[in-house]
Model the fold of this input.
Amino acid sequence: MIPAVGAVALLEADLDLADCLDPSEREAAARQLVVPVVDLAAGVWDPTELGRHCAATGFGVLVIDGLLSRSVTLAGRTTGELVGVGDVLRPWDVEDGIPPVPFDVQWTVLTPSRLAVLDRRVITAAARWPALLSEIAQRAVKRSRSLSLQLALGQVPRVDGRLLLLFWRLADRWGRVTPDGIVVPLRLTHETLAALVAARRPSVTSALGRLGHKGLLRRVDAGWLLGPDVEDQLADFLGAQDARLSSSSASGTSIA
Done:
């Protein structure tokens, strides 16, 4: 039995899933797609138990509330990703056998979260309403593309630039425009940010100090605030980086 705390009408919990169906289909789909939900308290989370119940019964789980992070540590260096509302996961999946290079994966629930289990009812519904399957597949592909972009972000030479790019991405998904700039309502620690931008925590702390001094990024009660001039500053920063890289390439030097 799935260790669930209740059930939820999937199309009410995720309105984008409802939007992928024709209006004539939604009522029947809403009645059929009542799925188990699992609540997670903040803190380190081991999805193994959930996987024992869910691995063979459906697509995985859908985040319908909250925020989680997944961090991977390899050779003493950690990188990570944020997972939030609308993301489709199979967090219990692991590498088959012994990986050639040992690494560690850790899930952390950053804010209390709720997961909807995409069980056999959803698989059955996909045969009747293929648009649901298409939308779920698109969510998985979108997460894959987001991870590819994050890998590229980690190649930006300066940590300042990585942080600005990261928060610009976060603002696109979670940001709220205010007279003072864009509030990103995520309480992310320096350690979490270091994993997200593939840097050491002290380097992130120093970079945040420089960005705060320039009025580009600072912590606020609600989370983090991107200053009103950050878009222009980001464009200038990236332009300067491109020029620096081109100059270094032409002279045969490299940037550490």
Observations:
- Residues 243-256 have pLDDT under 50 and may be disordered.
- The CA atoms of residues 126 and 133 lie 5 Å apart.
- The two ends are 53 Å apart (CA to CA).
